[in-house]
# Entry
Amino acid sequence: MDRTPVSDADVCVVGAGPAGGIVAHRLAESGASVVVLEAGPRFDGDRREQLEQHIRPGLGGPWEMGGPRDAFSSTGDSFYPLNAARVKGVGGSTLHWQGMVMRLHERDFELDSRHGVGADWPVGYDDLRPYYAAAERELGVAGAADNPYAPPREEPHPLPAFRPSHSDSIFAAACERLGIDMHSVGNARNSEPYDGRSSCVGYGTCKPVCPSGAKYTAESHIEKAEAAGARVIDRARVRRLEHDETGERVVAAAYTTPDGETHRQEATQFVLACGGVENVRLLLLSDSDRYPDGLANSSGAVGRYFMDHLFAGVGGRLDRPTRQNHVGFNTSECHQFYDDAEPVNGLKLEFLNYAGPSPVIDALHADTWGDDLRDQLAEGYGTHVAMGALVEQLPREDNYVGLDRETTDDLGDPVPEIHWSVDEQTEAALSRANEIQTRVLDELGVEDRWTVGPDETGPAYHHMGTTRMGDDPDESVVDADCRAHDLDNLWISGSSVFPTGGAMNPTLTIAALSVRLAESLRAALE
Amino acid sequence: MLAGLGVTGGAVSLTRFDPPTAESTGERGDSSGEDGADGDDAPPTAVRETMVAAGEVVFPSAAEGVSEFVETYVVGRARDDARRDAMVDAATELDDVARDWEGAAFADLPAGDRDRLLRELGVDTADPVQDGTLSERLRFHVVNELLYAFYASPTGGRLVGIENPIGHPGGTESYRRATMDGTEPIDSGGDSDG
# Structure
């Protein structure tokens, strides 16, 4: 494959996930010459190979993450499993994501003003509202208007919501008695055919792979971008952004291809869209005399304020069938407690449709077979229930992504360092989530309980905050348009620009900001 | 392709279910094609017999039609050439061991002896490793090939309580049903109006 640079490119996008794919598609469609550089490969071929890799032990991970290319350091109090949390490839982390999508609430944009914590965004919900609607169309969101706690919207979702599960109906009675509201939840997954993709056929393995194509991945935007004339170069690892003598403009992205060659892609505009960790790494690797602390980092905020969502959960078993693991997504949530002030951290509750073991996965790990195995699987499956929750982590300067200059990847570049911990305030919010979950499970009479709380929690793999947006160039990396304060032609797309993260899965907001960024960048090209 | 599922007298007919197969994927030729199970590259008869004999041990006793199931969904299923060759090699090795230790082809041993032989080889507790030790290879290419085909299908799933297991594209109705046989109405759950 020809991986040499494109001449006369208007826009160079680094990263072929949703944040890069949407921008590339929109700009290519408007007539711009666009090139996309993606560090990972294209995953062509039958997705049932990845399905089998996911289900069967001994085949390795489906998305080839974790080799020398992806080395990293985790140095905080909490270990961060970075390579479980991202995918490099055309489609980015949407290749393995679960596909839950919802809008942030109004309060998420005004946490400092309202509660004196975190930071305000330089844009509000009303600013993003039309872009959220556009993003829902871009991703093909299946949803309903039955959520009384959702922010205002003026049009229905593009696709009807998936109907509630049998498991939801078990929870519904208990929640009603407790005054806890259940409602539908947005899915970036086709409940009916949409955008040339199949409707869901129930493979049940949404995360990490949807063999039918019903789940949105950014591959669809990359495909559309290419159809509109964009050039996408895979396995092109961008290692440095070069700026001009004034330090006001990026002039080239230097990238290395699998044959060991290093190329320079020049362009008029550059969009950084390689995730909340690699965006930082690339800026820090691009330091210069003009930017000794890293490109676009005169604020010192590059890499700071790393946030993720934390998982809280309670589960156990009932004395009746609960019908889990037919599908790999949820059909009901509860956002009733999201806007509470005590604790101020947002939290949303999930009613899981995939609690407990999957018989086929257990079978493949079992140490017996025949009737013994059948009995073991039948006993292990069928009566589990669980509630999950995502809890907000507020931005803290001491949670950061940096460079570990003592450790290098296979190209000799310093690897990312993730310095992350969970603070007491977040732990209190996790306990609050557990309290509500426990009330529901008590009401149901659930036995054989397990709990994931402050001591057991882990990240939800949403990398946010590390190139935060803001109006003040001394405190933020990009402005409200996602353009770097320091460099006129450098834009950053993705959740790294979130000043706060709320407790909603971030990809719909990533998509909304990407649509908005494309609009601003298009204007800048004119 | 039969989409239904036959359950008779507590047994499950393995010839009647609908997991992805060579034919349904369009990745393989027909039975006379070069990649087909009965084509020029089809595994030798002894390998097929060994895999069927292993299936009779690995599957629960309620399973019927093991031979046709294994022929179609294990030996004959779509996979790359290297994986198919590795399965042939592993089955051949298993047969060789049976002949050396038991004095008979694996497929000719009583079921109890087949079970014992596999366990004596440590296949029950071995990690599945494609190019590992004999027991690891047998676990990957024989036992787990069989278990994957079986329990990722409605046939195997039904025996343990799920008619639409992960890995099977069984649609988006089953998760709403209260029971496996679907005779009860689908729950209305919450009040989502779509």
Q: What stands out?
A: Confidence is low (pLDDT under 50) at residues 1-39, 188-194 of chain B. Chain B touches chain A through 55 residues (CB under 8 Å). Chain B has seven helices and three strands.
